[in-house]
Fold each of these.
Amino acid sequence: MACFLVAAAVGIFTTVFAKKIPEKYHIEWLNVMIWGGVLALLVEHVWHGEIVPWFPFLTAMSDPQDASEMFHEMATVGVSMSVLVTGIWAVMCAAADAIVKRAKEASAMQTM
């Protein structure tokens, strides 16, 4: 229903603070992954009629019972998706760092 809002919050945070994060962490990779997922989920939710162009925009917000279910989904699915994407990004950064270090070591060995 609204699980993409959690990822959008992460995306807003990483976009706002991108300049303060060291380049070696490749925050642009995380931003692309996060915003791509948000866009895909937004399209999917519009397609299934869970997001509408009139207030309250999220159909689950019109009924308190549905709103409770939506907040539960945000807390479970939204948070777990965001943690998973962030974990994949961390592995990508570690792998990229290892590749760069290995290339530098090989280059240093060749110059000796």
Amino acid sequence: MARPEVGDEVTADLLDDLTYKPMTQLEGQSNTNLTSGNNIAVPFSAGSEVYDDEGWHDTTTNNTRITPTIDGRYRVSGRGVLTANLNCTAVATLIQKNGATVAATGNHKPNGTNNIALMAPFLETWLDMNGTTDYVELILNQTSAAAATQTTNNTASGRSTLIVQLDRRT
């Protein structure tokens, strides 16, 4: 949609176009192994799309990515959730745009006395996206005793989540 000009007729269709804020919300449905100390992009496979209003996500090709098709400013948020494991000493959530980190939580120190799913805090940022080639990914990095491998959680107790919503067109 072209930006309206001063003097344009205000119609219901124009108002709908101006207020429409499409989004994609993904929740992890499969386990992903995370080797201690490595940044790993979380894949979102079949069944992971809670919302995908404009088809910005593909569950098979580049399934770690959300690639918006509208030029604009976006609200991007995400959270990593790992399975219960007493060996994990830290979890960090990162948001990357085109492979470069643009936002990150500090290392979240899980409570090592409870054998529960490890949830990093939600991370939120605002990004300008070009509507063609720009993409975002949720990246997790965990640290474990003895360089152990941890696994993302995919049960009702919590799932890794990535949300991208258009805020305004540019």
Amino acid sequence: MRIGHLSKRSGLSRDTIRFYEKEGLIASRPSTSKQNTYRDYPEDLLDRLAMIGEAREAGLPLSDLRSLLDAMEGRGPTDFDVHAFLETRIKQVEASIRR
């Protein structure tokens, strides 16, 4: 799907989608059409964008989010413990809420 359609379906602006792509959180691919230079975004990005949005709303910095996504996709360090990472972040958010 093209960025306009992804924007409509995800509720995110085109600029936000482009920013996430520039930051390496999502990826598109060149269009299969030889007649344009549009980028195609896969359908499964809707779930990923929703997860990114929820993580950002919870205060997760982009660097932490990138590490988390890399680990979930097997691109990060092999000793990265996703559950421990998330548990630590949850405790930090809870402490922030209490303050």
